[in-house]
Amino acid sequence: MSTPPPPTTTTPNGRSSRVFSESDEIQILKCLVRATKSISPPITTVGTPTINRIIKRLNDKFSPSQINDKLRRLRDKYHKHARNKSLVRTHHDRRIFKLSKRIWGKKTIPRKKKNEMGSEKEDGVKNLANFRYLVAEFSRVLPGNEVWKEKMMGMGEDKLRKMDQEWVFLKVEEAKLVARKAELIQQQIMEVMGETGSANGV
Fold first, then answer.
1. Which residues form the Glabrous enhancer-binding protein-like DBD domain (predicted)?
2. What is the mean pLDDT, run by run of 10 residues, along the chain of 202 residues?
């Protein structure tokens, strides 16, 4: 038995238009989430390629203007529900809200707290393994001293990343210096010893 077509409504200009089903709404939002997964929310514009992808996902049942209008309505619905979550009553409402939040929700900002001087700072990091060069140097210079680890855990991630990068750059410079020293000593041995130095494997 064939599946009946979606119901239609008549617009004020006398034209009929298809009604979006709950399944259509979910498919629209899922498609938009996949298309914008590399972009931080909120999404402000939806390009033509994405609109065409949504249309194809819905088996060409709707026009670009209908999809754009539906996206606008879904966005307005999300903001309305975000202001008053008591309006999110049904299972479908909850699914729509969860997907819409990934598209039009505000980007999460790291929580900040007051330090002893009263100024704000970012929460401390939870894993020092991301700063292995910095940790390696402190472990070498302060063996058996765990206080510095506790202090680092209370510092901001950006600060620790900068400190770690400073050691990375220094390691690179040290490697260049070692290579330069090896080159220099070989050059000077040749100048002093001539071919004898080279023949002896120096």
1. 17-105
2. 48 56 92 80 81 90 92 91 87 91 72 49 67 88 82 87 89 90 91 68 54
DSSP state of 97: H
Hunting for tokens 């402190």 — which residue is that?
A: 138
- Cα separation, 85 vs 83, in Å, equals 6
Phi, psi of 95 (to 5 degrees): -65, -45
| Number of residues that this document lists for the chain | 202
Is the previous residue joined to 5 through a cis bond, with omega within 30 degrees of 0? no
* 3-class DSSP assignment, residue 19: coil
Distance separating alpha carbons of residues 73 and 78, to the nearest angstrom? 9
Per-residue DSSP letter, 122: E
